[in-house]
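Section handout 9: paired folding examples.
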Amino acid sequence: MEGAPTMMEIVLDGIDGITVRYPEFQLACKGRFDGKDYTVTGAGADTKQTLTFETITPNSIRMTTKLSDKPLYVDVLTLSTDAKSLTDDGNPVSVKQPMKAVYERQEATLKQHEGPLSQGLILRLLLLTRSPLMRCRMRHAGLPLVAGVVLVGAVLGAAVVAQTSGSPDERAIRDAITRFDRDPKNMATSDLIFWSGAFRRPTIGKERAEEVKGEGQISNRVPNSQRTTTTPVRIEVAKSSDLAYEFSNSEVSFDLKDGRHVTLHPAVLRVWRKESGQWKIAAHFARPIEQELAK
């Protein structure tokens, strides 16, 4: 699951049934350990988001998050031998950016219990620790995403702390990301640093961007046909509560004037700055990982 929620509830039902809930995100998924896709439901759910569940050992399971049938994130959940804590070893599918979260059991009800992850186990878990973002090795067309990582480090420096996913600032940023996907107008600072795969180099503020020539270039696209869905992987807010960075996976699709349809899956790195109480994008870097061009 993207990021590390502060509260997780797991209910194992019967021999192969499982329900996972994230109360703070208003998300839940009921499924079985059969590797099939099960829809994530709730007020905060994306209609195209699913989870799959697989048993690894009697004490551990694998949970894969998908968006539009494409795997985005893999979590391996391991329960301690005393059933008092659960470790979540997670990693985005697209990059080597592992994250470890450790949860402490808050409540547990055992019915016909024969093992830490056998039938009848009900766990309510609270986040104890979460590992920091260490590196990003993503490359596209030979171009590393190091520039974006360096920028984030320079802007936030040692002021960054791992706030919980339920903090007011992180929730506000998540809401801003959703609004940006629907309509990017008025979501950026006046001195925005912007770079995406569609342009040759970054721009600052109102500088004119130079297009990358090709069949998918912006001038060849049908106006207003673009649709974007962003799935945050990590959000960190500075102690000052006025700067933050976000690392996300996204899906961008649009129509070309020749009738074809293009789908991109960029990785996104953004710096957010709070202005007059509102979070706005101060820097935006996005590079496609893969592209699907319909004939």
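Moving on to protein 2 of 2.
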Amino acid sequence: MLPFWFGLGQQAARQRFVKLRLSDITVGRSIHPRCVVTQQKTGRPVPFEITSACRDSLHAWLEKRVLRTDDWVFPSRIHRGEHLTTRQYGRLVDDLFAMVGIEPSNYGTQSMLRTRVALIYKNPGNLCPCQLLLGHSKLESTVRYLGVDIDDAITLSEDMEI
């Protein structure tokens, strides 16, 4: 279930992190607290943070495996030498939800990403960090994605002191 918690903790869409290589998140034997992935659709870099709890789990998990820096962090369970696919990741999420008694069809990785970013938006009321985390090039895309009322967004921006 490590891929699930890793993805949830990063506010990252699953497409972004299933393709991570060990060299993307480590230097020597330590795991970076902050990393960057490239958004598949736009090719733009998207920063993310690996929480300390997630770093501890990753470190313990990686200690059990003998890896080279070019190995996948989350290898496929089926195809040797390949990374975990987004479909395999989705199935892991469904299995986890079912194990804890949550109906998997009511939730998905995208809704978890949206919820996390919406919570980040609500706290300071700033769309810019959300735009960055989502990898959107236009603020309008972030507003649409979050379902923010444009009048609310304008009011928030007017209330900000510069």
